[in-house]
Amino acid sequence: GAVVSQHPSWVICKSGTSVKIECRSLDFQATTMFWYRQFPKQSLMLMATSNEGSKATYEQGVEKDKFLINHASLTLSTLTVTSAHPEDSSFYICSARAGGGGYEQYFGPGTRLTVT
Amino acid sequence: QKEVEQDPGPLSVPEGAIVSLNCTYSNSAFQYFMWYRQYSRKGPELLMYTYSSGNKEDGRFTAQVDKSSKYISLFIRDSQPSDSATYLCAMSGKSGGGADGLTFGKGTHLIIQP
After folding, report:
1. Which residue of B has its CA nearest to A40?
2. Predicted local confidence at residue B100, as pLDDT
3. Which of A18-27, B1-10, B105-114 comes out lowest in average pLDDT?
4. Contacts of A101 in chain B (CB under 8 A)
5. In a mutagenesis test of the B interface, which of A9, A11, A43 is the best target, namely the one with the most B β-carbons within 10 Å?
6. Cβ(A70)–Cβ(A51) under 8 Å?
7. Distance in angstroms (rounded) separating the CA atoms of residues B52 and B62
8. Which of A53, A79, A102, B111 has the fewest CB atoms within 10 Å distance of its CB?
9. Residues in A touching B96 (Cβ below 8 Å)
């Protein structure tokens, strides 16, 4: 089956620093990737949608200058949390969708970010 | 009112029981409905996908959608301890979550007791 990986699986950083999270589709080409955030005991919340080679589309309330998304290739998307603060601590999950009209989104294992 | 409501549980049932998981939603634009299973510290795994109203069966799993009531269900027959996980409902207004991202419920934590 389609496999999506994320790196790192967990990261601790100090307030004010930036953190980059990678999302890779290992055995298929992902024309579209999605980034979600999940706080404890809460739903996964869509943050942004990115298509390869174009700018990401952010959901209402998500700061595009704070959460930088780059989808430079069909197998890699990155999310950079800039000037991280403790309230950015969360579980970040990406998903990838292959081209060809398929509907299924394949999710990565998630990255747990803790900002101290 | 949240777009998707799902009882977080925990729901604890004995092995072999029939499990019923449910979600309600408020956005009538949703047309594509999915159920995901998520184990602790893992990404969600797609279990079932349904378009519009109706039933869909896959092995021990049956998904039902009632758009008139804005209510979806997932039934698990002959439940096994390995079914213990968090079950998330998700829905989308466009092509099965392709063009749109998904709107998720909070997830129901299910425990199957051996």
Report:
1. B106
2. 67
3. B1-10
4. 95, 98
5. A43
6. no
7. 15
8. A53
9. 103-104
The span from the CA of A111 to the CA of A8, in Å, is 6
* Closest B-chain CA to A91: B41
Q: Quick check: A110 contacting B, CB < 8 Å?
A: yes
Residue B68 to chain A, least CA–CA distance (Å): 24
- Residue in chain A lying closest to B88 (CA): A43
Q: Which of A5, A7, A58, A105 to mutate to test the interface with B (most CBs of B within 10 A)?
A: A105
- Asked whether the beta carbons of residue B98 and residue A102 sit closer than 8 angstroms, the reply is yes
Close Cβ partners of A99 (under 8 Å, ≥ 6 residues apart):
A29, A31
Which helix (H) or strand (E) element contains residue A108?
A: none
Structure tokens at A62: 């998500």
**Is the per-residue pLDDT at A98 higher than 80?**
no
User: Considering chain A, what is the average pLDDT of its residues?
Assistant: 91
Ramachandran assignment for A76, one of left (phi > 0), alpha (psi -120 to 50 degrees), beta (any other)? beta
Which phi and psi (to 5°) does residue A74 adopt? -75, 0
Do residues A64 and A81 make contact, with C-beta atoms less than 8 angstroms apart?
no
Summary count for chain A: helices (H), strands (E): 0, 11
Bridge partners of residue B32, in order along the sequence: B51, B92
Which sign, positive or negative, has the C-alpha torsion A27, A99, A64, A94?
negative
Q: Is the CB of B75 inside 8 Å of chain A's CB atoms?
A: no
Give A48-68 pLDDT, tens digit per residue.
Answer: 998 888 889 999 999 999 999
